[in-house]
Amino acid sequence: MNAKLDSGVTTRPVTRQTYDEVLVPTYAPAAMIPVRGAGLDVWDQEGKHYLDFTSGIAVSSLGHCNPVLVDAMTRQINTVWHLGNGYTNEPVLRLGAALTEATFADRAFFCNSGAEANEAALKLARKYAHEKFGPHKSRIVSCYASFHGRTLFTVSVGGQSKYTEGFEPLPPQINHINYNDIASARAAIGDDVAAVIVEPIQGEGGVIPGDIDFLKTLRELCDQTGALLVFDEVQSGVGRTGALYDYMNVGITPDILTSAKALGNGYPIGAMLTTEAIAQHLNVGSHGTTYGGNPLATTVALNVIEQINQPAFLARVRDASARVFAKLEQLAADYPALFAKPRGKGLLIGLPMALEQKGRAKDYTKVAEKLGLMLLIAGPDVVRLAPALIVSDAQIDEADRIMRAAADQFSAG
Questions:
Q1: Does the annotation place 290 within a ligand binding site?
Q2: Which residues belong to CATH 3.40.640.10 in the chain?
Q3: Does the UniProt entry include the keyword Translocase (predicted)?
Q4: Which SS3 state, helix, strand or coil, does residue 377 take?
Q5: Residue 168, exposed/middle/buried by CB under 10 A (0-12, 13-18, 19+)?
Q6: pLDDT over 60 at 48, yes or no
Q7: What is the pTM of this model?
Q8: Is there a binding annotation on residue 150?
């Protein structure tokens, strides 16, 4: 037995300082530690209440400890947890059927995260291209300022050098274009391209919606060259933009779609969706994952899809979005020295800082947090709001009140 462990290891006191002492310093978490949540309400170790407009970075879209999901998971926990990919299970079959019935896709592959879903999509695209056209067709085109995950492959595809520095040499045959730049796309997408991967709304890159003409051009160029169009809907999917997936809003169907984040409402799960013909190129043994599609994750995800993929629920998301945008537009008008016009779609919204406040988005969110509102950033210049999709009008009004109080304190220095 390890002499460093004691019998009280599961109940020993821990603080924010413990993070700096025992965890690899890949993050710089807030000073407070949340210990309990319900809906959009969160309480920290000291009992202080916060209104959560982050939903765990667009993950907990049905709120913390959603009772339907708690009940479903509890029943599954008492049934079967894990089997391994030598067997299938009922929850994964039900989830696969639900997603293929609700989308363009015929087939689903389940994994544990958005990065893994994108890794699977890119591997499939290369294998499809190699088998159908030959190994010369291997190049992948992505956009600058995109984000597709943290594996070496997906972070290289992401097009943000700050995430790849120090990890060279990077995987080859990856090129980047400017987002929403049709000329840049036409210059880059040729017959040697296996896949074009794009977020229909860039999240980490600043909450920037894709122009319809740009996305249509990508679809046309892929059709002309035989490349596969991959929509990364890890952040925009599962109701976040007011449709089950944003491709439904823009009217452009990809060949492959990736989903994660809100799919499990906090339980790790990712999915890659594609067509029958393309899916056949990942044959037995060509790809896999130990935990992907396990009964716990797929039980939760099935219940998430059943709650969100309802016309009335999605209509409410659009109504809530309109209310948030109206509040933020007025906020920006009232504080022009702090904020520019908000942008985004549904309940994935960016509030850019004014030019003279460039680089200070995190400073503002820290002030808001002290006043009881949890917010995100999307790069150094944009405050990001991604509340749970069940957010009420009263909670939107309260967030507006706190953001105004934070703006006053921020302005006062």
A1: yes
A2: 79-308
A3: no
A4: strand
A5: exposed
A6: yes
A7: 0.95
A8: yes
